[in-house]
Specification:
alpha/beta, Arc Repressor Mutant, subunit A, Rossmann fold, 3 domains, about 45% helix, disordered N terminus, disordered C terminus
């Protein structure tokens, strides 16, 4: 039986949300339920069991790996090391001596692959290089609320280096975090207009309006005069606080940007907008859902259908399914441009206007990890310009 001489969760470098996952693995090793060479539950299983995000569970397993208790085999899984007892004993000895806790950042960021999965991989890598532990808080409202309540009790004793709140997370959460007045914690908003934040917040965002205008101008230069826009349904309620209504106005930016580009080219009545509706309580409006594909197909069959369409890159995937359903070829009969990252566009063979998630992640990681002297106490509002990417030649030929 493998024995663990000292619980690794006593390490001051271990952030609060990782404790449940780390504790369980250490206990399973201590009691013999996980012997040397035994495969651990998957990260997804650990996340589901402890109601934490995939990123948090992955960070916990990474912590155990750095401590020498487990080892990962790509394509196979994570296993208990043969010398786990020695490694755990060494970890316990190290944590018994005084050391500076590793800084950690609390990230209220959507980790769903079709939205910001690519961005998160860039950010976690950047933070890892700076020695900062990234703790993702679950996106789902109920688990998130429970974790926030837990975190509120720990922030006062060991505040995070930074708290990052992405656009789409409730305005109320941002106001509550701001009210805590955590002097040692940097407050950063992501992909949200800095005009909507309290004084003292930093911000990093992609220039969304410029991205959609760039895409529209590219299509207009190719001779298109009827451009369609596929976006998520805009949900608005008169009962919402003023700040929350203003936050949702960001979803008007694509419509205005494409409209301005058409007007500048002297094209009247050249824009149509199609909304993907929410599916199974997912407000993002999953574009590959059968109902949304059928609605897009109906839209594409209209008498004055658009000859080109712009949308989030993952929405173009669903749009291509709809185009096939009505016998339209992409891009011969229907030109498309995706907005977002580049991986989905490369896989789908369509051009994209990149929101430069890699550069946004780099700026955000710097705001989190930089010394106070480097920031000089000033608010930093960083806007990253977009970049046009044509489809890869090899992918285009294969389609």
């Amino acid at each position: 039986m493998i024995t663990v001489n000292k619980s690794i969760d006593e390490s001051p470098s271990l952030s609060p949300l990782l404790h449940p996952v780390v504790d369980e693995v250490v206990q399973m090793i201590s009691t013999g339920r996980l012997g040397a060479g035994t495969r651990l539950p998957t990260i997804r299983e650990l996340a589901r069991k402890h109601s934490v995000s995939f990123g948090t569970a992955r960070a916990a397993v990474g912590y155990l790996e750095r401590a020498g208790i487990v080892e990962s085999h790509p394509g196979s899984g994570t296993y208990v090391r043969r010398n786990a007892a020695l490694a755990s004993s060494r970890a316990g000895t190290e944590t018994a001596s005084p050391q500076t806790p590793s800084p950690w950042a609390c990230l209220f960021i959507d980790t769903r692959p079709h939205l910001l999965g690519e961005f998160n991989s860039h950010l976690v890598a950047q933070l890892h290089n700076s020695g900062t532990v990234a703790v993702h808080v679950s996106w789902e409202p109920a688990p998130m609320q429970a974790q926030v309540e837990h975190l509120l009790t720990t922030w006062q004793t060991r505040p995070p280096r930074a708290i990052v709140i992405q656009r789409g997370v409730s305005i109320e959460l941002g106001e509550r975090v701001h009210s805590l007045r955590l002097a040692e914690t940097r407050l950063i908003q992501l992909f949200r207009d800095p005009l909507l934040s309290e004084k003292g917040w930093h911000s990093v965002e992609s220039n969304l309006s410029a991205a959609y205008r760039m895409a529209a101008e590219h299509l207009i230069a190719q001779g298109h005069q009827r451009i369609g826009l596929v976006i998520k349904s805009r949900m608005m309620s008169s009962n919402w606080p003023h700040t929350r209504r203003k936050a949702w106005m960001v979803y008007t930016q694509p419509i205005l940007a494409v409209g301005y580009a058409l007007r500048a080219a002297g094209i009247e009545d050249g824009l149509t907008v199609h909304y993907n509706r929410p599916v199974n309580f997912d407000p993002s409006g999953i574009p590959v859902d059968e109902a949304n594909v059928e609605r897009m197909a109906t839209w594409l069959k209209s008498d004055r259908r658009s000859t080109a369409v712009i949308g989030d890159d993952y929405r173009i995937v669903g749009l291509k399914l709809a185009a096939q359903r009505v016998g339209l070829r992409v891009p011969e009969d229907l030109a498309v441009i995706g907005i977002g990252g580049t991986n989905l566009a490369l896989a789908g063979g369509f051009p994209t206007v990149s929101l430069r998630y890699d550069l946004v992640a780099e700026h955000l990681a710097h705001l989190i990890a930089a010394d106070e002297g480097d920031l000089r106490g000033a608010e930093h509002h960083i806007v990253v310009p977009p970049e046009f990417h044509p489809p890869a030649e090899s992918v285009r030929k294969s389609n």
